[in-house]
What does this fold into?
Amino acid sequence: MKLFTIIFSIVSLGIIGFNLAQVNFNAPFQGDSVTALTVALIGLCALFLVWILFVSKQIQKKTHYKK
It folds into this structure.
C-alpha cells in the first residue's frame, strides 16, 4: 500500500506540473488553458485523496496495536 501511495503521488504531481505548464497565463480561461486548469485541479484532488488514504492507514496502525 505504501508503494501505491508513493507512485500515485508522483503521477499526480507529474500531471499537475505538466498541465500547469500548458496554461497560457495571459488568458487562463480561454481555449486549452481551461482544460489544463481543470485537469490540474483534478490532479490536486487525487493527491488530496491519496493523502487522506495515507493518514487513515497511519491511524489504523495506531489503533490496531492498542487492542
Observations:
- The two ends are 22 Å apart (CA to CA).
- The mean pLDDT is 91.
